[in-house]
């Protein structure tokens, strides 16, 4: 075999090896990209599931609301309270089997916790925690369908948290009570669902 022929064969082998490695690298990168997209899609899927649950709740809310006297702000505070309490009672009857996690399912809660942690935990989140605690209501036992204490202050929801949390339709509102994220129905003044310990006590 001539020297020139030997060099040609070695060159071809090297080129083939390079091509194989390049192809493997492209395949690995593609697989990683798919995995990343899958993780992103998983969170989006969980949030979509949460929003579907919100829609179902609002359908029940609207149906129940139509069963009684239409709610409207009256000059008499007592009348407003009676109307609100009647609405709450009808929702409780319609959701008699409601449980924590019906809307904040475990996968949804996991996704929301991961997103909120940088804003609610650690030294960098101290300002946010302080703003929430400034108007903190008196702590009370969280129960689905329970009323928010009449006249109790409602803690401020900072804008940085509202940018993270999925938007809500009119009539629903997020609040942080003690260290827990609570979903409130404003028309009935009741707890729709909640997530425990989204914010640390002393961190």
Overall description:
It is a single chain. The chain has one domain. Helix content is 55%, strand content 9%. It has helices spanning 3-67, 77-94, 106-120, 126-134, 159-162, and strands spanning 172-177, 180-185, 190-195. The protein has five helices and three strands; from the N terminus they run αααααβββ. The chain is mainly α and 203 residues long. A three-stranded antiparallel β-sheet has the order 1-2-3, with no helix packed on it. The chain starts with a helix and ends in an 8-residue tail after the last strand. Residues 3-42 have low confidence and may be disordered.
Give the tags:
about 200 residues; mainly alpha; three-stranded antiparallel beta sheet; 5 helices; globular
